[in-house]
Amino acid sequence: MKVDDAVPNEFSYPGLGEIFITNTRKFINKVLSWGRANSLWPLTFGTSCCAIEMMVYGATKVDADRLGNLFIGDSPRQADMIFVSGTITKKMARRLLTVYQQMPAPKYVVAVGACNISGGLFWDSYNVIDGIDRIMPVDVYIPGCPPRPEQFLDAVKVLQKLINENKTRGGVYGPREI
Amino acid sequence: MDLERFRERFGDKVKIDKNILTLADKKDLIRVVKFVSKYFDVLYMLIVVHRPPKFELNYIFSRYQDQEIIQIKVEISDKENIASISNVFKSAEWEEREAYDMFGIVFRDHPDLRRILLPEDWPGHPMRKDFVVTEEIKHWTGLDLKF
Ligand code: SF4
After folding, report:
1. Chosen from B103, B143, B144 to mutate, greatest number of chain A CBs within 10 A
2. What ipTM is given for this predicted complex?
């Protein structure tokens, strides 16, 4: 059958089966996003000063665990999201990409600090990636040099919202072409 | 440190000023470093300065028992190469790799002369005075990406 033939020329009501399937799909997607949003296990990729703030974020005062953001296994295989915190040099870019590719499919990236947004202090350096969105899809940016630990909390909140609205870039269906 | 020993041994091949030994000829480097290694334990720094058309290499040595340091200064033209001292002081290996990485100085007889800080396929040697950081170099990632 050609594509042109598929265009219906009569209006038809969806059958009961169709309604059931659509709604079930919506429901399942809701449940999945709810689950994903509330158990974001981060992979901590700290390469320099921003990493210190990330540690504070994981500690008791700014309690990350209450958002389901558990700092448990530092292994890319168990991680749902990655905090790229710290300057990424050109040599490190390849290692970062390797780690990113090892993470299982619904994966989210948070770019922490000025360095990862635009290069920061090192914007005209010969050896720093000016913005990691040039090498991987980024969902949330945290500005600051370094950002406050509370901003991490905010970023995770934003990420959860994005996941619930199904608007992440590397999101449910995996990264685009990496 | 009794610098008279150097004066006796090498005569006018080295110029001595406080604790800085300036070598007249880079061929004497290994001999002088071997002599230094009798009294000093550590090579703790190799500083390279590019003053076109010359490189100035400063080897700084220290020892554990007191605060003494000694510095050996050699000048080479920026097209020449120089002998590696890594079989006298083992720690020179990484220092020389860094000098190679940043300035493109080739060390003869070095066991493993690769880049140490920059990626292996990085174009050029960034600390040379004639190196210009262009837009292309700034944006180079070395990764073939499309997404
Ligand atoms: S953004 Fe600032 S604090 Fe963060 S890694 Fe870069 S220089 Fe360090």
Report:
1. B143
2. 0.76
